Amino acid sequence: MSATEEAAAALRASMAINQGQQTLTEESRLLLAAMLRDEMRVAVAEGIEAVLTNEEVWAKVFAVLQRQATERTGRFVLGGLTVVLRKALWVGVFALIAYSIGGWSLLKAIWAAANKG
Prior knowledge:
Number of helices: 2
Distance between the termini: 120 Å
Number of strands: 0
Helix content: over 70%
Largest sheet: none
Oligomer: single chain
């Protein structure tokens, strides 16, 4: 065998070994990824369990929910009160106009007509 043929044979052997190492490395990478997924799954499950069983977390959650409910209820009540006050203002303006035109007799007639139906 000539030196060139020996070199070519050595190169092929080296490439075959390198290919075998790359295959092993790919298998190792896949195995490592599977192990990491399993470890992460366990760690996440433990973390979720720790949060769900922690009384301090639930106390904070309920405090925030109570605060938000109180704020929203206050807005609802104030919003409803604003609507009532606006309507009362318009009724007052209408009554003032009616009183200035026809006095008490016109107001009594309007009241009677409104309560008739």
